[in-house]
Specification:
With 327 residues, this protein is an alpha+beta fold. It is 19% helix and 27% strand.
């Protein structure tokens, strides 16, 4: 008896930034580790459809709102084996600690919370193994107070008591916290500063995507500021300060504004980058740089800042100097 063939199924509603891009090129962005050659094989086999009709040409493009679907045997290697591991987590990643609160500089690829795959490390499982953290020191365990996407790095807040966790989480719910992210984006905005307001759907349970909607969504507000422009490569470094905390908020809003984040595989089609930069991109370049919160009821707001991960910093070094890192 043979093992049942694992199937790959993709269902993607085309966004404005994905429109007018050849189907084979678009699918290399949407399907991890799929080459254009593999996609052409699936085209020949009739495994790719657009609005329910078979796509026959790799150069065929889609319009915004079209439904692109792929259903085929999954011949890819396990993404867990291919995917980069988190940067080494050590005590230096703890950037603030008091009796009941811990701030971690989360590296990219480290999950904020446990997933169905028990082999994937996540923040709490890794933190409990760090030198200096013994089970007797954390009798009630560690509690995650908010989340960052898997590939997003930066400030993550944890508590060592359930009461403190609830106190900190309430600050996020009541919008008392202040957050500032850094994002390297495609395109250069004409305005130095602007505020974007959109209504966003919940995260789709099948696709994992969030969409800008005209009704039924939740309000998302983010202030953006241009920090640095790289005209030669049509890239810009932005400061992003979200007033609300919707899932994938900054990523979706930047795509809607026409400035998708470099390396984002989910939002925004892949665009040309200089080889010296392309070779360094392993994750989307979004970093939670600063977090302002109240560690105790009577204390003033505390600001905690997380340094950029090495992977993000290398890209900026190349863009600023025109030289590969370390040369």
């Amino acid at each position: 008896m043979t093992n049942k063939q694992k199937m790959l199924y993709l269902k993607e509603k085309i966004s404005g930034s994905q429109a007018n891009i050849p189907v084979d090129k678009l699918l290399t962005v949407l399907v991890d580790s799929f080459s254009r050659r593999q996609i052409r094989k699936e085209l020949d086999a009739g495994h790719i459809t657009l609005n329910g009709r078979r796509v026959r040409r790799a150069s065929q493009t889609a319009r915004a709102g079209d439904l692109l679907e792929l259903r085929c045997p999954d011949h890819r290697r396990s993404p867990e084996k291919r995917q980069l591991q988190p940067e080494t987590l050590d005590p230096s990643h703890i950037i603030y600690q008091d009796d009941h609160t811990i701030c971690l500089n989360k590296p990219p690829f480290l999950l904020s919370q446990a997933s169905k795959n028990q082999n994937h490390p996540h923040v709490i499982s890794v933190m409990q193994k760090l030198p200096g953290f013994q089970p007797q020191d954390l009798p009630e365990g560690l509690f995650l107070c908010h989340r960052l996407d898997k590939e997003t790095s930066g400030v993550l807040l944890l508590a060592s008591q359930p009461q403190q966790a609830e106190f900190l989480m309430n600050q996020f719910r009541e919008r008392k916290t202040k957050k500032q992210y850094l994002a390297l984006c495609h395109g250069i905005p004409a305005d130095k500063e602007w505020k974007s307001t959109h209504f966003l759907s919940p995260i789709d349970k099948q696709t994992g995507n969030v969409r800008v909607v005209h009704s039924g969504g939740k309000k998302a507000v983010t202030s953006f500021r241009l920090l640095e422009a790289f005209p030669e490569h049509k890239l810009s470094l932005l400061s992003c300060s979200p007033d609300t905390g919707r899932g994938h908020q900054i990523r979706v809003q930047l795509e809607a504004c026409g400035f998708s984040i470099v390396g984002d595989k989910r939002y925004g089609a892949r665009k040309a980058l200089p080889p010296s930069v392309e070779s360094l991109i392993s994750h989307h370049l979004l970093h939670a740089r600063k977090l302002g919160f109240f560690p105790a009821a009577e204390s003033p707001m505390l600001w905690v800042e997380a340094a950029l991960p090495t992977s993000f910093q290398k890209v900026l070094d190349v863009l600023r100097t025109g030289k590969t890192h370390g040369k």
